[in-house]
Structures are given as structure tokens and as C-alpha cells.
Design goal:
The complex is a heterodimer of chains A (163) and B (304).
Chain A lengths: L2 H12 L2 E6 L5 H10 L11 E2 L8 E5 L4 H13 L5 E5 L1 H5 L21 E3 L6 H17 L20
Parallel strand pairs in A: 1-2, 1-3, 3-4, 4-5
Chain B lengths: L2 H9 L4 H22 L9 H10 L8 H24 L12 H22 L3 H32 L4 H6 L4 H17 L24 H26 L6 H25 L5 H29 L1
Helix pairs in contact in B: 1-4, 2-9, 2-10, 3-9, 4-5, 4-9, 5-6, 6-8, 6-11, 8-9, 8-11, 9-10
The chains are: A alpha/beta (163), B mainly alpha (304).
Bound molecules: iron/sulfur cluster.
Chain lengths: 163, 304
Amino acid sequence: MNLWKKLLCYSRRKSPWLFHMNSGSCNGCDIELIAGLTPRYDAEQLGVKHEASPRHADIICISGPVTHTAVNAMKTVYGQVCHPKAVVAIGSCPASTNVFIDSRVLDGPLDRHIPVDVYVPGCPPRPDAILAGIAKAAEILAARAGQEAQPAAAPVAAEEEKA
Amino acid sequence: MNATTALLRMLVFPGILFAAPAAWFFLWIERKAMAALQQRIGPPFMQPFFDFVKLMGKQVPPREGLGGFLMKLWPVLAVAASAGAVGLLPVIPRSGGFPGDLVLLLSLLELPSMFIIAAGFSSRSLWGELGSSREAILSVSYNVVFLMAIIGIAASQHTFSLQALAQSQGSPLRWLGVLAILICLPAKLHMNPFSVTNAEQEIYAGPMTEYTGHELALWELAHGMEWVAATGLVATLIAPPLANPWMAGALFVVLSVAVVLVLTIVAAATARLTIDDSVRFFWRCALAFAVLGVSSVLLMRIKL
Ligand code: SF4
């Protein structure tokens, strides 16, 4: 690995920019994610920046159990984030549809539609757990430096990372 | 100034080679000061550099046709213009310069904002166009004040050369002008309370919405260099003339950082104004102020 690649890997780990998407969440997880950016937890120490445009982001944070209406929007956003990218599923909802299981408005869980890299379980998870998940996703981003393109958005089996 | 020194100043000091690290440093100071004011720890020292490298290594979606070409072109031009503006700053006294370089500096400072407007429209994104039209409206308003302030200062000193302005003594009128410039800088640098252009979250990222990868990295770099050039202009105007070039250089940097801190404190203490309020502010309050400055300079000159 040459010097530029090493620097690039390191920088990717040091500067994960987030795009946050709500796919029908109860708003609990969204509040906890934002709490992670506030002075108490201060995600900016990790280089995290909450970006408004998916084009700027490296990590997509998705909360919510994925409703039918959210599926297409979510796929669009996933396509708009440029390679390399990672997906963090925040809360138990995207992992298992949680308390909304068997609801007729749902098309979850999340990994039926896009590949998920990190699951942060909890209902809602604590902000420090979310930040740990983001840090882990940043490591995955750095590891993807060599890869030229992201695997296509195919359904993948849920990696059971739920501790 | 001959061609070699001009090229050296543009490319080495205080041009690109010096301006790029300075730009990252200033961006870091701004973020760190903002974090400190909000009682956070804030980003690590090398953060803007890491952001730049990361963005350089990110993929860019294929862009076709003339629109795509223009989208690639604007950030490059913006970096060139702001690097040129930094290159004109008289960081070290008596290092060259030519009569009228203040006018060139002003136009180079203005160009990035024009490129931002063009970039938003060529990205064909709704939010980009919205941000661009806001930037256009805002720049028409604050530039009147900005130019009036500069004209007032230049007229009171009878010169349009940065070197001569840096060497001359300050006067009450110059302080009035500097104050007017400081009021315009948040709008020029898209800071609160005049951050309607890229109004984060509100209109996504404004003109930058569609940008990613190395193009976005260049925009960030251009933005940082704009910081260096704009705060450097203020530092030039307020620094007392010093004979020792090292002292003068150090004072220049200290004053620029102080200006960054002042602007950050203002940004942290205020909320975003709507476009109507921003425009009204510049036309009503600040313009009156600038007109006062210019007219008193002119009256003084008639009496002389
Ligand atoms: S995991 Fe719990 S808190 Fe989070 S969106 Fe689902 S129900 Fe709400």
C-alpha cells in the first residue's frame, strides 16, 4: 500500500460525515442521534459532521422500521451517497422491525433493501452506543479504500452483530 | 512587481503553497472556537486536512454534457481566484505590489461568490438554485456596503495600493471602514447570521448540494482561502506599520486569527436571519454607515 492510500485510509477513519434518514421511526432514535452531536457527547471529536446533503456523506444512519413509503426514498438516498459508503442501522427497528412487527404498512427489516454494515441495537440506543457504531462504520469505510466499487444494493443476510 | 515575483507570490508565498495549509488552519480555528464556545472539545487539529484528503479519494458521480463540465470547472476557478487574492496580500512589508492591487484583490474576493452562484445553477438541483439566488440577492446588498467601505478607506489615504495602505497610519475614518467591512464579512463567508446561502439542513447544502468528492474538496479549500484573504485584508488595514519583516508577518497572522475569532463569536451568538432581514439590514443600517464614511472622506478632501 503506498503512502497516499495509507493517508486516505487514515483520513476516512478520521472524518466520517453522516447523513441521517428516518424511515418511519418513532423519533426516539433520531433524538438520540442528535444528542450524540450535542456538547455532552460531542461527536465532532471523532471528525463527525452531520451533513444535510447525501452527496457529502460517507455514512448513512437509518432509523425506523422501513415503511412502504420510505423504501424508494431510502434506495434513492443510498444511491446518492458516493463510494465509499457505509450504512448504520440505528435502533432495534431497522434490525428487526421491533414492536411494529407484522404491521401491514411495513416492508422491513432494513437489510431486505440495502446492505447494512453496523447495527446499533436498543430502543432507543444510547448516544454513546450510536457513536461507537459510527466509529465502527468509519473503520469499515477505511477498510473499503482498496475496493473500487461498492457491492450492488442486493439483500444481504443480517449479520448478527447484536450484542 | 515583475513576472517572477508575481508568480512566486501566487504559487508559493503567500499564494497556494502557503495559503492551502493556512486555509485548513483557519477552518480548524473556526470550528474549534465554535466548539469551545458551545463547551465542546471540537475537532482535532488536522481535521480540515483529513476532510480534504478523504473527499479527494471519494468517487464523483458521472457528469455529462456542458452542465457537467461547468460543474467541474467552477470549483477550480474558485480556488484559483481565492489563491490569487491571498497572493496579493502584503504579509511581508515591501515585498512588492503595484498601484491598484487593492482593486484586483476586491475583484478576486468577489469571484468565488459568483462561481458559487453559477455552480448552484449548473447543478440543476432545486436546492442549488434556491441557494444561488439567495447568494445573488445577498451579494448585491452586502457588496455595496463593502465597496463603499473600501472606497472610503482608500480615498482617505489617497491610494489604491495595499502596500501603501499597510504602511500608512490608521485614522478614525479607517476604523469606521474596517467596522463596515467586518459587518460584511459574515455574509461573504456564509457565516451566521448571514448564512442563508448554504443554510445547512434548511435548504440541504444550498449551491453545494450536488457536489461531492474532489470537487467538494476544492470548494472547501476555496472557502478556507477566502477566509485567509478576507481576514488578511482586515489585518492589512488595522496592522500598525512595522519595520521588521518577521514581526510584521507574525503580527499579520495574529491579527487575522483574531478576526476569525471575532467572526466565530458573532456566528455562535446569533441565529440565521431570513433573506429579507439580511437584505434589509445591509440596505438600511450598514449602508447608512458606509455612506457616512465615504461622504465624510469626500468632504475632508474638498476642504483640503
Ligand atoms: S428502535 Fe425504538 S426508539 Fe428507535 S425508532 Fe424504533 S421504536 Fe422508536
